[in-house]
Amino acid sequence: MSLPRLSPLHSPPWWGALRDRWDRLRTRWRDRGDLTVTTRVREGNDSRRFLDPETIARFGLTPLMARRVVEGYISGLHRSPFRGFSVEFADHREYVQGDDLKFLDWMLYARTDHYYIKRSEEETNVRCFILLDRSASMAFGTGRMTKWDYACQMTACLSYLMIKQQDAVSLGLFADSPTVLIPPRGRSQHLHTLLRALIQNPPSGPSNVGESLRTLLQRIKRRSLVVVISDLQDDPETTLRGIRLIASHNHDVLVFQVQDPAEIDFHFTASARFRDIETGEELEVDPATIRETYQEQIRALTDFYRRGLAEAGIDYQPVNIRDPHDRSLEAYLHRRMKLR
């Protein structure tokens, strides 16, 4: 049976001599009976399967606050880069001719005998762009669901949360190139549009995360919250540059790396044939002989992303698809609120 590939095993430069040996192990494997593996994503036209009522009840109105300054148009829950006079006091500035007298701080005038204008922070909505990897490697799982199913549920929960707090949300799907980009909207009907797009665009094709993100970035005109959900199974350095490029345009970026436990631990016992579903290349492998090196490279790859993204001020969160998606996401959102 054909199976999807593990996490990328082509070696970054610092692994030197291991590069040639492991570069061809960015592959998919053939089952030998020691793990139950599926590459079939859940089917059906009912988009409500992505939104479990108990999950929504657990989320409530937990706000997904953008930690950077973002632009928006309507009242919401996010700090605005624009000074206003409507919500929360920020500071004073001296009065100049032409200023509206209703914003004069008469109490301060009584103490200082000088005219000052009160300024406040406006609160505004944020535009959230969820960029979801739909390459073929996402159609893999060793449990009840594939990485794609798990990522779709995360996407649905995030979209619901953003719309519930009066924010606009967009969905971008990509593999070797962008295939879908739905403009941001904040209405409840928009959620059904996003979920239908997930149903109509199942995972397929090779991945090119870095170049796809570069292309999608050209469509994001204003500073926004950008959530990247991917297994990051592509060249690490190119992928890292693509993600950091988004942050360099003053967007607030979150990265969720979805992984199956088998991709982390490599708990195969019998000999297996690895097959790259994108190229058809095959390689016979004895898991016992490569497990330790594989795990070391996976840890090194995770550290590579963690350090590289942290340097750019990007939140990076590896996610195990065996963990309940709602609880993992909820814990992360609460931690993000505390950081803000």
Proportion of residues in helical segments: 25-40%
Query: Percent of residues in beta strands?
Result: 15-25%
Number of helices: 10
Order of helices and strands: EHEHEEHEEHEEHHEHEHEEHEH
CATH fold node name of the largest domain: Rossmann fold
What would you give as the CATH superfamily of the largest domain? Answer: von Willebrand factor, type A domain
Q: pLDDT average, as an integer?
A: 81
Q: Identify the strand order in the major beta sheet.
A: 8-7-6-9-10-13
The number of distinct β-strands equals 13
Which stretches of 5+ consecutive residues score pLDDT under 50? 1-12, 14-33
- CATH hierarchy class name of the largest domain: Alpha Beta
CATH architecture of the largest domain: 3-Layer(aba) Sandwich
- What count of structural domains? 2
Q: What sort of overall outline do the alpha carbons produce when their principal axes are compared?
A: elongated
List keywords for this structure.
alpha/beta, Rossmann fold, 6-stranded mixed β-sheet, 4-stranded antiparallel β-sheet, 13 strands, 34% helix, disordered N terminus
What report would you give on this structure?
This protein has a six-stranded mixed sheet with strand order 8-7-6-9-10-13, sandwiched between helices. Mean pLDDT is 81; it is low at 1-12 and 14-33. It has ten helices and 13 strands. It has two domains: 2-69 and 125-339, von Willebrand factor, type A domain (Rossmann fold), CATH 3.40.50.410; 78-124, no CATH class. The protein has helices spanning 18-22, 53-59, 106-112, 147-164, 188-200, 209-217, 236-248, 261-265, 287-311, 325-339, and strands at residues 2-5, 28-30, 78-84, 88-94, 116-124, 127-133, 168-174, 178-185, 225-230, 252-259, 272-275, 282-285, 315-320. β6, α4 (147-164) and β7 (168-174) form a beta-alpha-beta unit. With 340 residues, it is of the alpha/beta class.
